[in-house]
Amino acid sequence: MDEARLVAAAVEARRRAYAPYSGFAVGAALLSTGGKLFTGCNVENASYGLTVCAERVALFKAVSEGVREFAAIAVACGDSPCSPCGACRQALYEFAPNLKVILADGEGRRWEALPLSSLLPKGFGPADLAGG
């Protein structure tokens, strides 16, 4: 799947975001190494700490379906491209330290691609645990 199609899927997922408190809708499209696509949107909660980001929704959907190897993720939000939060970076790193991350604006008009390692330098993963 090319970057444009992945961004388009993230933009579509963004339209389903539930963001009544922040007004900041985010969509994500996660591509497995096998070519399967998983989308997610942010889901806010009146108890703010229970809010879940779009990237983790997509990741958890994939993992819950038995997929654990990923090639790329596109994230669409706002007037300009934005980056996944630290928690999402760490969650993605757990499964795909070499993931391509595509940062897009909310309409998918502008985007840039970069490696997850540039967003989470010296990341911590399963290999760093004793016996990992």
Automatic annotation (TrEMBL):
Question: GO BP, one example?
Answer: nucleobase-containing small molecule metabolic process
SUPFAM superfamilies listed in its UniProt record: Cytidine deaminase-like (SSF53927)
Tell me if Cell membrane is a UniProt keyword of this record: no
Q: Where is the active site?
A: E55
All residue ranges annotated as the CMP/dCMP-type deaminase domain in the record: 1-127
Cross-referenced PROSITE patterns, in alphabetical order? CYT_DCMP_DEAMINASES_1, CYT_DCMP_DEAMINASES_2
Question: Entry's Pfam families?
Answer: dCMP_cyt_deam_1
Reactions catalysed, semicolon-separated, are: 2'-deoxycytidine + H2O + H(+) = 2'-deoxyuridine + NH4(+); cytidine + H2O + H(+) = uridine + NH4(+)
Cofactor(s) in the UniProt record: Zn(2+)
Is Acetylation a UniProt keyword of this protein? Answer: no
According to the UniProt entry, its GO molecular function terms are:
cytidine deaminase activity; identical protein binding; zinc ion binding
Binding positions for substrate per the UniProt entry: N42, V43, E44, N45, A46, S47, Y48
| Keywords for the protein's UniProt record, in alphabetical order | Hydrolase, Metal-binding, Zinc
The terms describing its cellular component in GO are: cytosol
| EC annotation from Swiss-Prot or TrEMBL | 3.5.4.5
Q: Where does Zn(2+) bind?
A: C53, C85, C88
Q: Which family does it belong to?
A: Belongs to the cytidine and deoxycytidylate deaminase family.
Q: What does this protein do?
A: This enzyme scavenges exogenous and endogenous cytidine and 2'-deoxycytidine for UMP synthesis.
Instruction: Please identify the protein, giving its name as recorded.
Output: Cytidine deaminase
Q: Which organism is it from?
A: Candidatus Bipolaricaulis anaerobius
Q: Which gene encodes it?
A: cdd
